[in-house]
Amino acid sequence: MKQFQNSTVYQIYPKSFCDTNGDGIGDLRGITEKLDYLHDLGVDYLWITPFFRSPQRDNGYDISNYREIEPMYGSMQDLDVLIARADSLGIGLMFDMVFNHTSTEHEWFQKALQGDKRYMNYYIFRDGDPETPPTNWISKFGGSAWEYVPHLKKWYLHLFDKTQADLNWENPEVREELKEILRFWKNKGVKGFRFDVINLISKPEQFEDDHIGDGRRFYTDGRNVHAYLQELHRDAGLGDVLTVGEMSSTTLENCIRYTDPAQQELDMSFSFHHLKVDYRDGDKWKLQPVDYRKLKDLLETWQLGMQENHGWNALFWCNHDQPRTVSRFGDEGTYWKKSAKMLGTLMYLMRGTPYIYQGEEIGMKNAGFTSIDQYRDVESLNYYQILTKNGLSSEEALHILSQRSRDNGRTPMQWEPGTNAGFSEHMPWIGISENAQGVAVNTQLNDSDSIFSYFQKLIALRKKSDCIANGKIEFIASEREDVFCYRRKLKMQEIIVICNLTAAPVKADFQTQLSGMTRILGNDPNSTLLNNNVLSPYEAVVYQTATTK
Ligand code: TEU
Ligand code: CA
């Protein structure tokens, strides 16, 4: 039986993790080399973002062959070694299945382009006038979601880049192909799958213009998505492996269905509403300070909603598409260490499965890029154009990118201080963060007060505490905007987590709740919570009933 309630997943972006052959690009051997480090951190699974054959227009989310390794990442033999070594350490690998679309270089799309009817039906082609796309939908990376193919006199749908053509899931042959890919990787010993934008796979019967939005309401959590996931679960044997779906602009109701075990779809889901609390008018490209009131409300709503209905959340602050946690929700300066620990405590002791993104466990910060040449991400490069065309100055656009670009989370992992951060012997494919100073693995490993050591404790706590893995959650002091507190409960066991969300000391009287409890973790050794009713800036503290083992 897979156990995910007490497990922690660690996400690796291979391109930026560890380079072993000095070409400036991380590789599979680099992951193998760092397995002991990951074992030491205590994680149970590694989700590795795509390293399959790909032209890399979207860093591997544009797959041209699902069963081959992109040569710059290594060989199938390297992968076999990685799987075997990970297995011997009790670490399971989760692969990233990008099934909403393929690269336009995929053999299927190439055949479709040659007019092969069978393969044209693998994608979503529509007739149309070369001047007017079939609908006014906008791609997630900017511009129209349709691309015209003159010699076919047809348009094809791409919700992402124009080199990422959406698959036609209505076609049963497509679904069979995808199941075969899952079986192939399961046979290789893969222990889990992360499904990329899986709630976008079911498109509407009729395509129509969206007069109030970008089109997403027509294909998000679409009409057949639950049926398709049940079919995959049944035919590809997903019950034996850990599964998580990435859900774009989803709803709580749908995530309950995706993850209720009785539905036999997925084990858990990523949803992003809590990562939009600093978008002005819901627009990623308009800055606004974090709205902590909204953040609290969203986390509480999702926690309670999933709990009451047998759903299960993936718990996360960031990934390869998001800015760095500490830069965004904490403090990069004075309270860097303390706020990074507080954020870890707040998120990863809730009900769900933690996903820690590479570098988060050492408090890595945003990239600090100041020139457009430093950016690599297709979305950032597109939006720089769009923003400046819409009248922003280059400086203003760069300022927005410095907060919002996906490259903030993609700078190389900082293993050591120094030029290439111990990531590579060579100049890396993307620059080391400008804010790397003082943030590195090797200086944190043997420091009991480091962010790394604190994350080790958090992970170990979930592993050994049944109450954290399986307990109920209820929120305390919901009405307060400056603190985030909750209680976990299982039979006679109780755990209370208290966090100060602000850079100032706050008054907090928890005497009654904490009486008879023992402090088991915290980021302030001089805490005055109990004797003074004050939480220090960004303080986090965890108490448990004395009976808890
Ligand atoms: O991301 C889906 C997704 O919705 C984000 O890319 C989002 O559109 C973006 O952050 C908007 O600001 C997944 C992958 O995680 C991402 O890396 C891929 O680029 C994308 O799918 C396409 O496969
Ligand atoms: Ca390399």
General description of the model:
With 549 residues, this protein is of the alpha/beta class. The strands form seven sheets. It has an eight-stranded parallel sheet with strand order 13-12-11-5-2-1-17-16. A hairpin with a 6-residue loop joins strand 18 and strand 19 (483-490). The longest helix has 17 residues, at 292-308. The mean pLDDT is 97. The chain binds 1-O-alpha-D-glucopyranosyl-D-fructose and calcium ion. Calcium ion binds next to loops.
Topology record:
Layout: E1 9-12, H1 28-33, H2 35-41, E2 45-48, E3 52-53, E4 65-69, H3 76-88, E5 92-97, E6 101-103, H4 107-113, H5 117-120, E7 125-127, E8 146-149, E9 154-157, E10 164-166, H6 172-187, E11 192-195, H7 216-219, H8 225-235, E12 242-246, H9 252-259, E13 268-270, E14 279-280, E15 283-287, H10 292-308, E16 314-315, H11 325-329, H12 336-348, E17 353-357, H13 378-389, H14 394-404, H15 441-444, H16 451-464, H17 466-470, E18 472-476, E19 483-490, E20 493-500, E21 506-507, H18 511-514, E22 517-522, H19 529-532, E23 534-535, E24 540-545
Parallel strand pairs: 1-2, 1-17, 2-5, 5-11, 11-12, 12-13, 16-17
Antiparallel strand pairs: 3-4, 6-10, 7-9, 8-9, 14-15, 18-19, 19-20, 20-24, 21-23, 22-24
